[in-house]
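Lab notebook: predicted structure, single chain.

Context: the supervisor wants predicted structures on file for every construct in the current expression panel, including those that have not yet been purified. This is the next one on the list. No modifications to the sequence; it matches the entry in the shared construct table.
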Amino acid sequence: MITLLDKNILYNTFEVNDFNSLENKIDIMAPSLVEYYLSTLYFDENEIYLNKQNIERTLYFGEYSIYFDYDNEIFLEINKKKLDTCSLW
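Prediction complete. Output recorded below exactly as produced.
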């Protein structure tokens, strides 16, 4: 599940000016706060296809991946793991 993010909204959410600053800010923030901010930026209805060969840089944080591509676009991917629930019957 990948969505295109508005750079201005992302940067304002984390109070940074560019992707390098974003990476530094995420490194020093509490993990729960980063996950909260990222979860508020993700919208299922904006899901798109991403050509991963066009990715310049990637940030990984828990189940989230933030991609910065060569076109200066930023994408957010959520990698939700499906739980394998086995029946006892």
